[in-house]
Amino acid sequence: MAVTVIYTLSLILLSLHPSCSTFNSITQGSSLSVDDPKHVMLSPNGIFSAGFYAVGENAYSFAVWFSQPYTHNATVVWMANRDQPVNGKGSRLSLLHNGNLELNDADESHVWSTNTVSLSSSVQLLLNDTGNLILHETQDHGVVLWQSFDFPTDTLLPQQVFTRYAKLVSSRSDTNKSSGFYSLFFDNDNILRLLYDGPEVSGLYWPDPWLANWDAHRSGYNNSRVAVMDTLGNFSSSDDFTFLTSDYGNVLHRRLIIDHDGNIRVYSRRQGGDKWSITWQAKERPCSIHGICGPNSLCTYHRTYGLKCSCLPGYKMKSDGDWAYGCEPEFYDSCNKTESRFLFISNVELYGYDFRIMENYTLKQCQDLCLQLCNCMGIQYTYVFGPGTYTCYPKLQLQNAYRIPYFNADLYLKLPSNSSFAYEESKDEYNLACSRRKTQLKKAYDKSHGNSYVKFLFWFAGGVGGFETLCIFLVWFFLVRTKRRPYSGVDARVYNLAMTGFRKFSYSELKQATRGFSEEIGRGAGGVVYKGVLLDRRVAAVKRLEDANQGEEEFLAEVSSIGRLNHMNLIEMWGYCAEGKHRLLVYEYMEHGSLAENIKSNELDWAKRFDIALGTAKGLAYIHEECLEWILHCDVKPQNILLDSDYHPKVADFGLSKLRNRNDTKYSSFSRIRGTRGYMAPEWVFNLPITSKVDVYSYGIVVLEMISGKSATKDVDIDIETVDSGVEKQSLSLVMWLREKQKNNGGVWINEILDQSVEGGYEECKMEALARVALQCVEEEKDKRPTMSQVVEMLHKCSRENDNNPLIISQ
Ligand SMILES: *[C@@H]1O[C@H](CO)[C@@H](O)[C@H](O)[C@H]1NC(C)=O
Ligand SMILES: *[C@@H]1O[C@H](CO)[C@@H](O)[C@H](O)[C@H]1NC(C)=O
Ligand SMILES: *[C@@H]1O[C@H](CO)[C@@H](O)[C@H](O)[C@H]1NC(C)=O
Ligand SMILES: *[C@@H]1O[C@H](CO)[C@@H](O)[C@H](O)[C@H]1NC(C)=O
Ligand SMILES: *[C@@H]1O[C@H](CO)[C@@H](O)[C@H](O)[C@H]1NC(C)=O
Ligand SMILES: *[C@@H]1O[C@H](CO)[C@@H](O)[C@H](O)[C@H]1NC(C)=O
Ligand SMILES: *[C@@H]1O[C@H](CO)[C@@H](O)[C@H](O)[C@H]1NC(C)=O
Ligand SMILES: *[C@@H]1O[C@H](CO)[C@@H](O)[C@H](O)[C@H]1NC(C)=O
């Protein structure tokens, strides 16, 4: 009944619209003409339209699009002839008597057809409510002859099954809808992948090409090769790749698309006229998409500014306005050893096209090798943690170059020695310096000075439950407002749309979910956490923020930037509530509480402990280096590492500093920021620059606690006033104890330090790697500590090498 009413209403509404068409379907012998703007098919629910769509001046493609909005450019979901548009006069789409659907240009030339044949006299073309254009026989069980869902262009709609026979191909650019260089497809090994197939080179870039399938959480064993996204936003593929969109639940419209920048994204919106928000994307680092800036160029990414391509020094842009063709040399390479020099550019990653990989090479050896090779264009020189050596990668092509802060590799570009090319680091590219003084913070937080480059850092120190837990969070990010237009891609503005990506809850809804905030499950930085059950029956942890009385818009902006972080080892934020004075955050609920509660538990055997250490490292590496804004956690401790029902770890409580009330003077007496006693890096105490290495230090302490069973904080009684001088005594004593053991016990030191109360066997290699890595992490000098991604790499190495033949030692 209700359905009929809605249906009738929508028909009435649609009939009021000027471009209303009378077509719900067309039958044999009839056609749609490009000349008549009324020749547009509508799906019964009015959501989708099919007809001739202008793709250029006097150039049309037969397409399916979202009917709304009417006034702006429509969102196209399918095209018949994207690479061969037809004339704006005289072109038509005809359903022939033999059951074939044909698209003919003005000169009657044949452009596209379904190549179908039917003996039936009742063939019909209709546009289904799902956006599927279906050619079927209306009699005899309505055999489907052809459907657009089987031949996707660059978009998948909910319920549209993606198969081994299909391929999503990106469009060429924002404005040019013809086939571009990126595609999504099922590979021969059953894995769903992204491929860059550019003008000069090609390569797979998702999942990360250097990962084994199981490292990428994929399975190559199921050869059904199907993937589908349901209407709620659950995508699942037969290679075990799955995700839920950040706004999982009932949303009016959704679409998954391979954008022209080579990323796959899911967009959704609640109303027909709304803007589309990004609710999921495959690659968090846009610069890591192959070919994005073409050859001989350098990609940089910036939170506000978006992605930026530039030519490497000595190179100039090849095709004006089109980065796909990258840059070409401005110099002539004489191939004479004495006529070349190297130009240094720090923190550059270049994927692929190595002459060879030369381990333990000095810079001199590496450069000499490159000089000997006529076609060597430069070298990537990488520091390898662990052995402490350098690896040399002579590059035969300069492809996929991008700059990332902290990246432990540099580029030495080969240029003629008589040239004067130089690298100018533009100031706004990235600058991770941060200040300590709260007064500076206030000054910097002046958004009205729009033109100057403003970098700022928020920090606050908060005490919850007296001084026992001093919690601090430090987040930095950049606000750059320049008039320069960024790369004309899916830029930062679009990312910002993801702000509305996840759910807003009403206060009453959350009050009901938590049964009046009755079940307290924890206290952390800034508020109390309650357990609750949402209307969709998901169990959630609801954090009620204290002293958070900033404006709703600002709150939303900040919350959504946290909500956008999506990683299996980070606690997931499902939504927020901002109503009146209330500010609440809704997180997924973690069955097993925190690592702190479990560290003494028998449930955590050695394998689980290793996995927790690895997972935590991955989560931290992600917030440090991979997510869209660079975040430090600054309070890594067992209380902030939560465990799910399978004891997989998720890092919690990151990025919250921005949500606290900055005008609160309660904590302003602290002139310094601090983490939690026992886990704080020496930099805090000695007033040294704060970098991501403070988290590395805290992580190291947590791991040492986990394996030794000794606490970094227990039984120490240091007065908070004397913290500055004696703070790290307790954790240092743990570290010193371990270093002694390592020194005095040679090969068997691992057995000496492991917590004897933990049951079960362990793989010696893994435990040794873990202990070694942890000890590196707690080096006093921050430069001697690895980065979080190096930690992940070092831990992975062992688990990979030893998985075939694990050496199990029983205690
Ligand atoms: C529609 O697309 C054209 C280019 O095809 C562009 O110039 C115009 O700004 C777009 N309009 C809107 C409202 O997005
Ligand atoms: C059209 O879509 C609906 C679901 O919205 C489905 O039940 C129906 O079978 C489809 N019609 C055809 C002809 O496939
Ligand atoms: C779109 O790109 C294709 C392929 O690069 C090119 O041939 C065509 O001219 C472009 N169309 C427009 C309107 O720029
Ligand atoms: C998503 O879909 C997959 C496959 O249909 C299913 O196994 C999984 O439980 C679904 N997830 C959710 C949260 O509904
Ligand atoms: C393979 O994947 C399909 C689709 O996800 C699923 O229905 C099927 O059960 C899987 N087969 C096996 C053997 O796991
Ligand atoms: C290389 O250049 C040097 C100095 O420009 C010159 O003396 C030498 O002859 C050149 N060698 C060759 C093989 O061209
Ligand atoms: C690296 O090479 C140097 C000299 O060639 C050698 O002394 C050193 O042991 C090597 N280091 C490693 C880790 O192989
Ligand atoms: C550099 O040397 C090359 C060949 O030796 C010559 O062709 C070129 O003109 C020189 N460039 C400059 C800027 O002197």
TrEMBL record:
Signal peptide range in chain numbering: 1-22
Domain spans labelled Bulb-type lectin: 23-148
Domain Apple span(s) in chain numbering: 335-416
Stretches assigned to the Protein kinase domain: 515-808
InterPro entries: Bulb-type_lectin_dom, Bulb-type_lectin_dom_sf, Kinase-like_dom_sf, Pan_app, Prot_kinase_dom, Protein_kinase_ATP_BS, S_locus_glycoprot_dom, Ser/Thr_kinase_AS
Membrane topology: Single-pass type I membrane protein
Residues annotated as binding ATP: 543
Ranges annotated as spanning the membrane: 456-479
Gene Ontology biological-process annotations: recognition of pollen
Keywords (A to Z) from UniProt: ATP-binding, Disulfide bond, EGF-like domain, Glycoprotein, Kinase, Membrane, Nucleotide-binding, Receptor, Serine/threonine-protein kinase, Signal, Transferase, Transmembrane, Transmembrane helix
GO CC annotations on file: membrane
A Pfam family hit: B_lectin
EC number, as in UniProt: 2.7.11.1
MF terms in GO: ATP binding; protein serine/threonine kinase activity
Protein name according to UniProt: Receptor-like serine/threonine-protein kinase
